[in-house]
Amino acid sequence: MIPLAMALAIGAASPAIAQSNADRAMPAILPLERRAETEDRWLKQRLETLLPTLMRRDKVQMWVLVAGEYNEDPVMATMLPATWLHARRRTILVFFDPGEGKPIEKLALARYPVGDFRPAWSPDEQPDQWAELAKIIAARNPATIALNRSEAFPLADGLSSTHYEAIVRALGPDMSKRLVAHERLALGWLETRIPQEMAAYPTISRISHAIIEEGFSDRVITPGVTTSDDVVWFFRNRINALGLDTWFQPSVAIQRADGGKFSVQEMGHRGDTIIMPGDMLHVDFGITYLGLNTDIQRLAYVLKPGETNAPKGLRDGMAAMNRVRAATIAALKPGRSGNEVLAAARRQVEAEKIDGTIYSHPIGHHGHGAGTWIGAWESQKPAPGRGDYRIDPNTAWSIELNAQANVPEWGGQKVRFMHEENGFLAADGTFRFLDGGQEEFLLIPRQ
Questions:
Q1: Sheet strands side by side (includes 179-181)
Q2: pLDDT tens string 247-279
Q3: Residues spanned by CATH 3.90.230.10 within the chain?
Q4: DSSP labels for 69-105?
Q5: DSSP class of residue 47?
Q6: Which of 100, 129, 164, 342 is deepest in the core (most CB within 10 A)?
Q7: Alpha helix stretches (DSSP H) within 298-430
Q8: Of 317, 322, 320, which Cα lies nearest the Cα of 407?
């Protein structure tokens, strides 16, 4: 059995810059039983430390979550024991804050024990689960009862309409007046990372980078033979072989000096396109491990005979891409809205006369995580609602963007240089990448 401390220590020291052409070793990956133990320990810590902070920050006295089997509230799904792959029957969780200095009450109305939650319903004594919920609420008489309902954020909108109607019927008209749709509490729970999670997140990023570097190498790619789909399925099979999961199908796209136009919808040459010398490759890739996700994009260049590096025009395009990255990171500050970050970053990008697009987002329990939007690939205008949400500290981010530039060596053809890397925004406002950001092309073959 691999000691947890050893496995996590690999990710403790993250380099400032990823060395693109020095492939890293694959970090240790925990067996399933150790993963479950780790996730449950993190959940216990989150419930004991993070939950009270959030409830008291938002002045919520009671929080009620309801989920049906296979139709889980996204928030509740992160609160279930690691061995519970889904909610069972109808599962109701109740959090009650009796006041400062006292621990948050954690109650479960379910047919089966739910981790560290105190069982609060006996079906034999009271067959009506909703009546028991109403009794628990009446006994505690909370001033407010937060529910996961939100128009702007799907991750905070996990309460189904039938469950909401059942709660209203059970509580009656007077107590139902205390029900409050409270998206910030749900988002705060999902977006905030505790120190134990952040100790491991660099390792999760490093695993992602190691897989990408393997796929974008001559161990996998033979120019003139390998197709972009071959590489996509290498990634899927490699993830599976390592006992990991992914939250989206990887994509591999090719841009080449053929005068073709590149669009986000087409993502360049794909499918059965054969990879050739002189191609610029792009991958969009992510894994799920220990309940956390990565979302990473990398660029590679397939060397022509006699070449030792990508053409200068491509390297200049990557440099422009990274100036868009620098502008985005400089604007990313706690307390700002996503729209404010977008506006500040765009001012800098436009001042540098770069043709760039910014569409960064939170990451964590979900790949496209809880929190504000910072632009969208289809629109660089402020996003009402989702873009107005304020950025909180101790949150993880996917810095996603692109720059477009004309490449002289390709006859002045416009090429899109896409970037995505994951990092952490600390309480003091500093940002760091989990495992470095791309500064150079991955070269095939390595030099």
A1: 118-119, 105-109, 90-96, 62-68, 145-147, 179-181
A2: 999 999 999 998 766 554 455 677 889 999 999
A3: 194-444
A4: TTB--HHHHTTS-TT-SS--SEEEEEEE---TTSPPE
A5: I
A6: 342
A7: 312-331, 338-351
A8: 317
Residue pair 156/75 in contact (Cβ under 8 Å)? The answer is yes
Report d(CA 436, CA 439) in Å as an integer: 9
Token readout for 184 is 């910030």
Q: Is the predicted pLDDT of residue 1 greater than 60, yes or no?
A: no
For the chain, count helices (H), then strands (E): 11, 17
The CATH classification number of 194-444 equals 3.90.230.10
Q: Residue 344 contacts by C-beta under 8 Å, 6 or more apart in sequence?
A: 327, 330, 331, 336
Axis crossing angle, helix 129-140 with helix 161-176, rounded to the nearest 10: 40
Would you state the structure tokens that stand for residue 358, as one six-digit string?
């910014």
Rounded to an integer, what distance in angstroms lies between the CA atom of residue 97 and that of residue 111?
A: 24
Residue 85: pLDDT band with limits 50, 70, 90: confident
Token duo for residue 412: 């002045």
Is residue 423 within 8 A of residue 399, CB to CB? The reply is yes
Are 284 and 426 in contact by the 8 Å Cβ rule? The answer is: no
